[in-house]
UniProtKB/TrEMBL annotation:
SMART domains reported in the protein's UniProt record: DEXDc, HELICc
Domain Helicase ATP-binding positions: 67-247
Chain spans, region Disordered: 1-21
Helicase C-terminal domain span: 288-440
Upper classification of the organism: Bacteria, Bacillati, Actinomycetota, Actinomycetes, Streptosporangiales
Name this polypeptide is given: DEAD/DEAH box helicase
Source organism: Actinomadura vinacea
Length: 768
């Protein structure tokens, strides 16, 4: 097996000498000794025995500390590394609540996971302990109707997700009376994933849960488990609305790990405006995955998009068909949009090692137990350091030596990071950004709460100060009715349907094979214009399809099997209008602003690029309706006098280049990636009359990313200038100022002009 070979997985990847220049840095993460604590005196004896039989002799000190906080009624977040045993920290007090000596005081536990796969995995682990008084069951969209009644009436440990809590449990809380009255603990697993719009929605769902519990006389303690994150206590308090204690000193042992930063080579091809083009990260990752499979190194390749995951798996299969055809069946793809039975089968194949190489979206970043992996390939910066370490930590979970490789995309942030390892290693992870007060988030949850139990003045403190302003507007629009006793839901339809907590918006588009009528998967409505437009290449489980028709009215995309040698990328045009300026600060004559904007975006064409090289093959027009988004943005302007002092400059190209680079660098300062945000730049914007560069949140109402950019603007924009200046290209490339999602084909762009504009902007910026 791979673990018994004399050379390391990294050495074997570098057996080809032409690859050695692709590694920009190797970080050795040393092994760490574990620190044990004693079992709490209150821990049920049977649980301790069963854990001992499973090889757990005693808890690590961080597990014991978190468990003690929870047992004493203090809400707690345990924010430690991957495979540090966070589940034991909530298992101890949860089982203790169920094993009360007085059975009449027996508590119940509600476990929330962001995915059904993680909840199912936790259920398997619970049942393996054979604790007869623990009646555990999942309650999700896959739970048969006849089983749901049993869960409501008999289960005392219910594993579900925020979606079911929002759409099913809370609206029908009267059917859960017995469970909610005794609710002792709410476990929130993978809490770092609740960020942006999704996290903001979940924060309001949890406030609704606390309100319903109070109705039945319960005040549950929250136990949150998270990857290492900055400000864990503050983030957890913002998510739950209650005071939370943090435990973040990781005392678990860890095997040695090697972490390599990998930059694909330049090719002879030239891209837009003659810029040099690197080999794509997906092609590089596919080759690495194939090589590791040949060496029997079980590897998980994390890819940022569904399409990318399919592409990496397809590339690995092609390479194996040439080098070792008998191994091609040991590679697969895993992503959201697959049918539940397909995902469960893939998870089991990974555990049994019948699959050696799996290309996955971050659907497998979470705590699904896939222990025994030898290596992880991260295809493109995943957006945050927290996510990077979470993904890398999937390897070596059994204590063996592990390999992690970050393969850079041709992108400003990826390029910056693989050449500045200090920005990854030894740097604290980010704080999680969420905004529960976003009116587009809060309004539908106020309606949902009113339909559950009429709202009263006493609820305003629970839901936040914005509630006072929103309630009259909801009454005026006919959603709520004001009576002396409070605010009541007035409609027959379900109030919970108003809030789409995943932030996708609209009815999902069903992807259907035209010749057979077979449902291949789904795409959220907001992504349909860019992913399943007419002519798009759609990949499902390694098979390629061409989209023949996108019917937005019927929410269906019809596809036909095909084998194109190219990928497709949508192009769009964007306009932006300032609705309200909320904050501003002067940097000399320059201005930095933050506020509400309205963005109108329309997909107008798509480009075709050759799969292995990225070579542009052509572009075709599309006729799709525009989409309008009201959101939050950060923007900066330069005065007319400042512009005049800069001399002859391509203002549009300079501002456009600065916009692209700043979008690329914002993820260093906010928990997002460049696909969560957008930008617009113009030499003269009609609302300001000045040269203006906008960066906006790509979610209705905002997600907190632009606000973080405003707060950290000096550091963010200086890093932007540094990236442009440090790039070795002459006039701009994807590693500095070109954007993969530019609606204008990266034209015009002026690299040197961007540096001039940013220097002028930062000239009188405040010192850090």
């Amino acid at each position: 097996m791979a673990a018994q070979r004399s050379s390391s997985p990294l050495d074997r990847l570098l057996a080809d000498p032409t690859r050695r220049d692709r590694i920009t840095h190797v970080e050795s993460v040393p092994a760490r000794q574990g620190r044990r604590a004693g079992w709490p005196a209150w821990a049920p004896e049977l649980l301790v025995q069963r854990l001992g039989a499973a090889g757990i002799e005693a808890p690590w000190t961080h597990q014991a500390a978190a468990a003690e906080h929870a047992h004493d009624g203090r809400s707690v977040i345990i924010a430690t590394g991957t495979a540090s045993g966070k589940s034991l920290a909530y298992l101890l007090p949860s089982v203790a609540a169920i094993y009360e000596e007085d059975e009449r005081r027996e508590g119940t536990v509600l476990y929330l996971a962001p995915t059904k796969a993680l909840a199912a995995d936790q259920l398997r682990a619970l049942r393996a302990l054979r604790l007869t008084r623990v009646r555990a069951a999942t309650y999700d969209g896959d739970t048969p109707r006849d089983e749901r009644a049993w869960v409501r009436q008999h289960a005392n440990y219910v594993l579900t997700n925020p979606d079911m809590l929002h759409r099913s449990i809370l609206p029908s809380h009267a059917r859960w009376t017995s469970f909610l009255r005794r609710l002792r603990y709410v476990v929130i697993d993978e809490a770092h994933g609740y960020r942006g719009v999704f996290g903001s929605h979940v924060a309001q769902v949890l406030r609704r849960l606390r309100r319903v519990c109070a109705r039945y006389g319960a005040e549950p303690t929250f136990i949150l488990a998270s990857a290492t994150t900055s400000e864990p206590a503050a983030t957890a308090s913002r998510l739950t609305g209650v005071d939370v204690v943090a435990v973040h000193d990781d005392a678990s042992p860890r095997g040695p790990a090697t972490f390599a930063l990998w930059e694909p080579p330049l090719t002879e091809l030239r891209g837009e405006r003659g810029a040099p083009v690197r080999r794509t990260a997906t092609a590089e990752a596919g080759d690495l995955l194939a090589d590791l499979v040949v060496e029997d190194v079980q590897t998980l390749a994390f890819v940022r998009s569904r399409r990318g995951a399919e592409s990496v798996a397809l590339g690995a299969k092609r390479a194996l068909h040439e080098a070792a055809p008998e191994l091609a069946g040991q590679v697969a793809a895993y992503r959201a949009g697959y049918l539940p039975e397909e995902r469960r089968a893939l998870e089991e194949s990974l555990r049994s090692r019948s699959i050696i190489g799996l290309a996955s979206t971050n659907a497998l970043e979470l705590g699904v137990d896939v222990s025994g992996l030898d290596a992880v390939v991260v295809c493109g910066w995943p957006g945050t350091r927290a996510s990077l370490w979470q993904q890398a930590g999937r390897a070596g979970r059994s204590g063996q030596a592990a390999l992690a490789v970050l393969v850079a995309r041709d992108d400003p942030l990826d390029t910056f990071l693989v050449h500045h390892p200090e920005a990854i290693f030894g740097t604290p992870v980010e704080a999680t950004v969420l905004d529960p007060d976003n009116p587009y988030v809060l309004e539908p949850h106020l309606c949902a709460a009113a339909s559950e139990i009429p709202l009263t003045e006493a609820d305003i403190e629970l839901f936040g100060p914005s509630t006072t302003d929103l309630l009259p507007d909801l009454v005026r629009r006919g959603f709520l009715r004001r009576r002396p006793a409070g605010w009541y839901w007035t409609r027959r339809d379900k109030a919970a349907d108003l809030a789409d907590i995943r932030g996708a918006g609209g009815t999902p588009i069903q992807v259907v094979e035209a010749t057979t009528g077979r449902l291949l998967g789904t795409v959220d409505e907001a992504s349909a214009h860019t992913h399943v437009h007419e002519g798009a290449v759609y990949i499902h489980q390694g098979e390629s399809y061409l989209v023949q028709t996108l019917d937005l009215d019927d929410s269906v995309a019809l596809v036909e099997s095909a084998a194109p040698d190219y990928s497709t990328t949508a192009r769009d045009i964007t306009d932006i209008r300032i609705v309200e300026q909320l904050r501003s600060t002067a940097w000399g004559e320059a201005m930095l602003c933050y506020g509400t904007v309205e963005v109108t975006r329309q997909v107008v064409a798509y480009q075709m690029r050759r799969l292995q090289t990225g070579e542009m093959l052509g572009e075709k027009p599309l006729e799709l309706p525009p989409r309008t988004l009201r959101t939050r943005a950060v923007w900066w302007t330069l005065s007319e006098e400042q512009i005049e002092g800069l001399g002859d400059l391509d203002l549009a190209g300079s501002a456009h280049a600065a916009e692209h680079a700043s979008i690329g660098l914002l993820p260093l300062f906010a928990t997002c990636d460049r696909w969560d945000i957008g930008g617009v730049s113009t030499a003269v914007h009609p609302d300001t009359g000045l040269l203006t560069v906008f960066v906006y949140d790509g979610h209705e109402g905002g997600a907190g990313f632009a606000e973080r950019g405003y707060v950290d603007a000096v550091e963010w924009l200086r890093a932007t200038s540094d990236v442009i200046a440090a790039c070795e290209c002459e006039s701009g490339c994807p590693s500095c100022i070109q954007s993969p999602k530019c609606g204008n084909g990266n034209d015009p762009l002026d690299k040197q002009g961007a540096l001039v504009l940013l220097a002028e902007l930062l000239h009188q910026a405040p010192d850090l």
